[in-house]
Structures are given as C-alpha cells and as structure tokens.
Amino acid sequence: MYRVALEVCIDTPDGIAAAMGADRIELCSSLALGGLTPGVGLVASAIAQGAEVHAMVRPRAGDFVFSTADIDACLADIAFLRTAGVKGIVIGAANEDGTINETAIAEMVAEAGNLDVTLHRVVDISPDPVACVEVAKRNKIKRILTSGGTSSVREGLPIIKQMITASEGVEIMAGGGLTIADIEPLIDAGIHAIHSSCGTDIAAKGAVSRIGINATQRMTDAGKVAALKAAIHQKVTA
User: Transmembrane stretches, by residue range (predicted)?
Assistant: First the structure.
C-alpha cells in the first residue's frame, strides 16, 4: 500500500504527547521564529516519551546565510544530537543568492553519520527549488521539506509536482500553510510525507504582556493531529 507519513513540528514538552499520533516529530525550539535547535531537556523528554525525533539544527533566527561560527555551532549541535539518540536531523544553509550552500550542507551531513537528514524549507528561498532535489541526491539527503517555493503548499503545488517527478531516491515532504483540503491533491501528486504544526493559539497564563511577552502561545493540538492522520489514511485507502 502507498504510504504517506505525517510529521508534526513541535517546540514544547506538552506538544510531544499531543503529537504522538503522528509518524514522527520535527523537534524545535521557537517555532514562532521558524524553528531553532531544541534544548537538551526537550530532546531528552521527546526520546523518553518514545517519539521518533528528527531535530532541527539552526543556531539562530533570521536568514540561512551562516557564518563560520554559525556552522561550527551547527556541527556541535549535530554531534550532541547524534549521541542523544535522535533518529534524524533537519538542516539547511544558503548562499547570499538563495542557492544552497553545499559546502556547509556536506559538512553537516558528514557530522550526522547514520542519522536521517532532511533538507528544510531553505529550498523555498532558492531561485530553483526543483534543482534542490539534485543537491539532495549529491549529498545523500533522505528527504526535502518544501512548500514549492511559495508561502503555502496549495500555491506551490505545481513546483512540488516537478520535485516529486525529479525525486528518485529522495522523499518529498509537503509543508507550509497546509490544511486538510490540501491532502487529496498532494497525495494524487505522489507526495511522500505531510508536515504540519497542527497548532492552536491559546491565551498565555499570567499577565505576561505587562513585561512585553506575547500574550498568546501556539500549542500542538492532538485533535488536529488525529484529523490529519485520518484524512491521509482515508485518501490512501480509498
């Protein structure tokens, strides 16, 4: 049977339990900033709960044009994550023209050893997301997360289809502005995996806005995880 995996990105200890209905989790800190490398405690909690953990490796917010110090921090994080027991890592680095920084990527892949490697949505700032499939092949990267070079998978579906066509040996995972309505056309296109935060905004506890902290926070919603999983199952078994 054609199988489409569901990956949920989370950044809180409580989110781990809420996401356990997914096939795997992308573990981050600070999803509001696009996702940064998770801390030691969050990694330990996810592994202790039995999740299949694929950890983000991104040392700072902002762009993906990394300095030598940034890359050194990425390599140190990968070394830690490899020994911590994660299943995979999620990486990306760009040149100033938006193309993939293959030198940095190759260093990270080498440091990852036998971990699964996902190339994240840095491909969506590339002038040619389809060409990033060949970058992944050259660097023995297992999968690519993409919205097809746009802000949402719906808008980017034509490019995602081209990436799937070119993807022999590389999994294409769709994520970015994804809704349940996108599941059917993505599966019809031959997508390998679906990626979502499955988040719900809730009011933060306490008067944190008084000290300049955002008064809402986004929490993983187990109901949304279950609904996405069910929609995928319904489509692939139809």
Answer: none
Residues ≥6 apart with Cβ < 8 Å to 128: none
CB hemisphere CA count around 201 (13 angstroms) = 4
Exposure letters 141-169 (e unless 16+ CB within 10 A, then b): bbbbbbbbbbebbbebbebbbbbbebbee
Which H/E stretch holds residue 124?
none
- Beta-sheet strands, E only, within 17-170: 24-27, 53-56, 88-91, 116-119, 143-146
| Tokens of residue 149, six digits | 């070079």
How are the residues of the chain apportioned to helix, strand and coil, as percentages rounded to the nearest 5?
40, 20, 35
Assigned superfamily of 5-236: Copper homeostasis (CutC) domain (3.20.20.380)
Q: pLDDT digit string (tens) for 183-236?
A: 999 999 999 999 999 998 877 676 656 555 666 678 899 999 999 999 999 999
Q: At what angle do helices 102-112 and 68-84 cross, to 10 degrees?
A: 20
Q: Per-residue pLDDT tens for 86-99? A: 999 999 999 999 99
What are the sequence ranges of the domains in the chain? 5-236
